[in-house]
Design brief:
By secondary structure, the protein is of the alpha/beta class. The protein has eleven helices and 13 strands. The chain has one domain (9-279): TIM Barrel, CATH 3.20.20.70. It is globular and about 60 Å long.
Amino acid sequence: MPLAAGNLLLDAYQNHYAVPALSVHSLDMVEAVIEAADTSNSPVLLQIGQRAIRNGQMQSLADHIVKTAANYKIPVGIHLDHCRTYPQVVEALYAGFTSCMMDASALPFEDNVALTQKAVETCHAVGVPVEGELGAIGGVEDDISVADEEVVYTSVEAAVAFVERTQVDSLAVAIGSAHGMYKRAPKLDLQRLQHIYEQTDVPLVLHGGSGIPKEQIQASLKYGIAKINFDTELRLAFVSGLSEGSRQFPDDPFSMMQFARERLKEMVYEKISYCRLEEVTNGGALQRS
């Protein structure tokens, strides 16, 4: 089907499941992720992040997502991940992205509000939803590095003010998750999440999904988490598949790549299962039973 327009997260927010937001770094990853999401009958956001953009892949990945998604029935969106500048938002809109994240969380609150407002005004003019971020999520992802001592949890009061002033369509919250793989077992602050959920009215986003135990992710779905980002475990699965595939098929690039794609798809199936509570299918959308 054509790329999904509008905010894919609203149904998830209302029915307590999450749309998996899966980072892609190559054309083969795009195809494998969409194939797995289609098999799972799950809407999906394919994220293009700063690592891929820095390597000149913004337009090529976006074009390939459009081409591939046309062959499947599930809703597919293209999401700009961790954008730090307004010009990149504009570039993404021209490239065909269907949602954008303005991550000005490293700036003082007022500057974060101002830059996010600017992105919202531009994106909403063409019907594209915007994700904002409040707080400092730890770990390393692409060009983002936040040490443990620099982590700042999202406060309820700041979340309420930020949503009201920016009019963002979704909000990434810092509640104990981290980018990259965890050095110790993560523990999400579900009480904080519940309070943010009760005081705001937009879908909430959990970054750093790789490595969070399934039971914690499932619990977060009850309190407004409607989008969960996965990157590190996907990359590791794909790269390890390439490594093992090259040993099994040393002179057969096609079979080697197919092997890597299957490894990636296995990981995608697992992460999609994390994003669902009990569900029934209703017109292609997932809902609580």
